[in-house]
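for the writeup, i need someone to sanity check this before i put it in the appendix. the sequnce is what the collaborator sent (i think, or maybe the updated version? ugh). structure was predicted straight from it, no edits. if anything looks off just tell me and ill rerun, i have time this weekend
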Amino acid sequence: MKIFSVHSPRALFVWQRVHSGRLGMASLAVAALLLIAGPAQATMTYDSGLAAPGTYYGSGNPNTHWVVDNANGVEIGLQTLIRYTGSVVPTPTNSNVYYVPTGATTVTGKSGSAWGFAFSLNLNGAGLVLNDVTTSLQMQDMANGTTGSFDALLLSDNYGYSSSGRDGGSSSNPLDATKDYGFQNAEALSFSSIASALGDSGYSMNQNNAYKFLFSVTCNTGNCAGQQLASVNSTVIAGTGIPVPEPSSIGIFSIGLLALLGLGLAGRRRKHPTGGTHKA
């Protein structure tokens, strides 16, 4: 288990736009600023287990291969799953990147996509309960160009956890947000309601793709009202995915982008030696 800083999703976006030839010179300037001046990201723990009470959604699910953020007394996590089988090991292990197969599950008697994802929130260290916070589960479909989010606390089959143990798990037996300090669930994009809630109604389980997940929690009460307490993110590569740079290359790319910008501007100056303002 190792701790590393999060890689900026801006760099991924900019790289893809440059790679596809969709950035002009003016946009390159903006892109360079995004890479340099973006807000600081959280520090996450990769390939981890959750603190007590661990993984408690469903039955028999492993407390392994989570990506976790601990901040302000809050633990928040994301896990990628091969459905009905187990959690996915990140690749490389010191990362929040998970590779999964395309297509349907091969488990007999089951249906839907081969992979899914789980999320967990534990507020115990902050002395808060679920009624004190709002969450945001966001997903970006990189191939389809869609982004959507919703409050994961609103799902009716969430499992909750309090000093009395686990509760919830179904709409007929919901968690108790007035006393539960934690909740978990596992979902899949092959559930149409989940895909729609995440803005991805065109999701196809057979598509080579990349998905970026961001799970965050914001306090809505007392002295911490309006404060984002913690956030965690992960990237899921389905099948062969789409072109994504290695994390270690993002810094090199940033320098190269600035150099490209400088060369482009220098070239433009040479084309207009008499000075003045050139208008397109």
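DSSP finds four helices and 14 strands in the chain. Residues 1-40, 268-280 have pLDDT under 50 and may be disordered.
thx in advance!!
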